[in-house]
Design a protein that fits this description.
binds ligand 6CS, D-Maltodextrin-Binding Protein, domain 2, 10 strands, two-stranded parallel ribbon, alpha/beta, TRAP-T type transporter subunit DctP, 46% helix, DctP_fam, signal, 19% strand, transport, single chain
């Protein structure tokens, strides 16, 4: 078996390391019968190009961010809602593992488009970087914010008064450097590894959302696997949940130090107070109604169920 596995990140970054580890485990378990070639981001085009490659079966497997599928799988934009998951990354991962709303209901929505998400996992809490200090929603007024392409991500920033611009991360360093955009959101490891802090003056520890990625497979290809292979893929996907949690944790901790210690490119780290976070949350809440009424194709049922699951998990 020769399969292709594409990721949205490059060597060393969480998604890429995930795919390499996945490939290694599959190769070992199958006594060398399964060979998975892992592709770094860039070689096969943009994040949205990669979505199409998975759908057409040009690649069998992909790590995909829902932030790039929002124009197609409307419900998947649930991850664009700020302050929805618990502040704890660990609790968030637990919900991603166990949620029926996501692993059954949302999965079906993706499968209508030939994409089967086998798992959802976090790459860490997201933070803002910016060219000016951001501590309250008013600081976002007319602020040029880079986002991924899902329309609801743009809505979330419009709710703060910002002017969001979707683009691929491959163009982001230059766009920040030139001032085409003034800020962006990402987990700390990604900010540090992609060196965005070099061209930004501030990093706000906002924890406004968790970055969620999905391990996806082409639906027809997956359904066509023999039972032994399918079980091996499923088991490996489950095992990898704990592995990737530790990997993102380690990388996010290490890169926070790297950014703090980079005296050649100083970045002021701003921690939001509870009160300040509440101000952002207040502005973010109406976006949930917007999701329910305008975005969801099933009257917000998946969101309702997910919110119940989050409540049951406790803060
Ligand atoms: O900001 C982005 O678009 C990129 N961020 C991460 C953490 N992974 C890949 C994604 O394309």
């Amino acid at each position: 078996y020769n399969w292709k596995f594409v990721t949205e990140e490059v060597d060393g970054q969480v998604q890429y390391e995930y795919a390499e580890e996945f490939a290694k485990r599959m190769n070992e378990k199958s006594d060398g019968a399964v060979n998975i070639e892992v592709y770094e981001f860039g070689g096969l085009g943009s994040e949205t190009d990669q979505v199409e490659q998975l759908q057409s079966g040009t690649v069998e497997m992909a790590v995909m961010s829902p932030g790039f599928t929002g124009n197609m799988v409307k419900e998947g934009q649930i991850f664009a809602l700020h302050f929805l998951f618990p502040d704890s990354v660990e609790k968030t991962q637990q919900i991603l593992n166990d949620s029926e709303a996501l692993n059954t209901d949302l999965r079906e929505k993706y499968e209508e488009h030939s994409i089967s998400p086998l798992s959802f996992w976090t790459e860490g809490a997201m933070q803002w970087t910016s060219s000016k200090e951001i501590t309250e929603p008013a600081d976002f007024e007319n602020f040029k914010m880079r986002t991924q392409t899902s329309p609801l991500i743009l809505e979330s920033y419009k709710a703060y008064g910002a002017e969001p611009t979707p683009m691929s991360w491959s163009e982001l360093y230059t766009a920040l450097d030139r001032g085409t955009v003034e800020g962006q959101e990402n987990p700390i490891f990604f900010i540090g590894d992609a060196s965005f802090h070099e061209v930004q003056d501030y990093m706000t520890l906002s924890n406004h959302n968790n970055y969620v990625a999905m391990t996806t497979v082409n639906t027809d290809w997956y359904e066509g696997l023999n039972d032994e292979m399918k079980t091996m893929v499923d088991e490996t996907t489950q095992e990898m949940q704990e592995w990737v949690f530790e990997e993102q944790k380690k990388q996010n901790e290490e890169y926070l130090q790297t950014i703090k210690e980079d005296t050649e490119n100083p970045t002021e780290i701003v921690e939001l107070t509870d009160e300040q976070r509440q101000m952002f949350k207040g502005k973010a809440m109406p976006v949930r109604d917007y999701y329910r009424n305008e975005v969801s194709t099933v009257d917000g049922q998946i969101l309702d169920k997910l919110q119940e699951e989050i409540e049951a998990a406790g803060e």
